[in-house]
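Re-running the complex after MR caught last week's input typo. The corrected sequence lines follow. Everything else is unchanged.
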Amino acid sequence: MTKLFKRKMMIVVVLAVIAITTVTIISINTTVIANSPVTGEIQLPADVKQVLMQSCYDCHSNETKLHWYNKLPIAASLARRDITKARKHFNFSEWNKLSPNEQNGLLWEMYNMVNAGEMPLPSYTALHPGAKVSPTGLSILRNYLNTIKVDPAFNADKEKQADSQYLKWVNRYAPPDSLPVSANGIKHMPEYRNWQVMSTTSRLDNGTMRVMYANPVAYNAIKTGRINPWPNGSVIVKLVWEKLVTASGDIRPGKFLNVQYMVRDSEKFKDTKGWGYAKFETPALKPDNESPSKCASCHQAANQTGYVFDLSTKD
Amino acid sequence: MKNAILYLSLILVFCSCASGVNKKVHLREYAFNDSGLKVITARLNDRSGTMSTLYGNSAAFDWSMGKNTSRIGGEVYKLVTYKQQDHAFWYGSRINGKVIQVETLQLKQQAGRIVPVYTIEYPGPADTLASINYMMNATAAYFP
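Corrected-run output:
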């Protein structure tokens, strides 16, 4: 070993020590994210809670547990970004801030996000393999959901509301003078009634039923299997009604709730994966102000079919 | 720093191969074309695990919206019944699956009387009388 080599080694070692010390000091002093107090914890059966605590609490609660590598530079800011975003979407520690409707909707969405492989974030499970939800975990969640299904029963009030809506409609039917437009520029398209029905669904999670239409561009895309991505100009419309149980026990559309749109324009709507989302509420078709990015983030669960859920599949 | 680089490359490696647990799906072909008829309403029957869509021509439409006080010849109804199936991407939703029957009802004017003419494709376990009764008396669902 020459003297020169020894000296070089010394320099390398010293530099390495300095680097490691710096990183350690930065890391120890890094507050990745603060844990606010738990103010309204979610109440669930113990086994269900256990699954969520193990897989979701690091991001979606105020009980985040960090590891040493989360404090490293860059890693810390990534973790901070994810946790901040996740808590904003929903926070198990502040669950009571949500309405019962929002809570119910989120529970079903959680299962479906996990089932689609979207949650927990793959970048997180890569380092925490134990946080992946196992098949047993999934069935625990599913069994729990089965206990909170919305069972439509005959309801005289609901029937009255539906009837009065119907009577107003048929007695005063006139095409609207001007069509409502959403904030992102999507206009209600009454011509959807001439399009082909894409599918119909019955929801067990929220007591509604739906009819979906595809415009000719979208319908053709489905028929030719060109939906990854969907061609520009595709439009999908969804109509949502409350379920109404009739005397015979069948269920028919009751009160009309809203109409929703997905409009394909990969340039104009590139912030929401190429789909423009819009929703118009009640017969007055009042544009809903919910941010389209919320629509898009849930539709992520249908990434296999270009973010469109309602396509019938073969078993 | 080395650690951070290692960590970052790990993230990159894992992100790029992250995949869902959903199995690959195959889309179902459309077995029914509405041929210009429009949807009047829809119906779910959870006991038989089916869902159906009722279509009609404009005369049928007028009737279903209470515009005509008496029946006129020329009303055409089509009742398409599907099997319900679990939605592939959304636990909590049931979607229309296989078509099990398509029933058609035409009201014809014959010698001053209205005569219902009933036909069925994909003969399923149809309860013909119940279907005719339903098609003749369904009220329109609210469509904006």
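None of the earlier attempt is carried over here. Chain B touches chain A through 60 residues (CB under 8 Å). Chain B has one domain: 27-137.
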